[in-house]
Sequence to fold (138 residues):
Amino acid sequence: MKDVSRSASQFERAILALGETIAWERRSGDDGNAALGKGAADFLLSVHRRMPDFLRPPFHILVLVFDVWPLLRKGRLFHQLPLDDRLAELDSWRRSRLEIRRRFVEFYASLGVFSVYSDLYGRDYQYGDLPPGERARS
Fold:
């Protein structure tokens, strides 16, 4: 990833790649994909930070396993793969015989899609510029 600092952890780079890939799947052809992907990744990281203590370590490990998995077949981590390979990797996890792989992608993809469409809704109706606590007018 070009815009991720070297100090970012492997977990954060994997989440950023996952967020960007989900955003690309949902909004292909949109110039705002990078911003949507970053927003989705930020949302996924915030969800992880707010998880109960007993869930945070297992999900952290699952993300790292997901990031390392392509190393076996493609020789690169998920976050180092080009977009087409990341899309193919997500698809292979969705079609896996192992339920944990399918549920992992389902969990993170549903959260990522929620973030992407929330951001798009906010852009469409310009809710992003409201001060905290103020309701938007229709």
User: Anything to note?
Assistant: The radius of gyration is 16 Å. Helices lie at 10-26, 33-50, 56-68, 71-74, 83-94, 99-125. The chain has a mean pLDDT of 81.
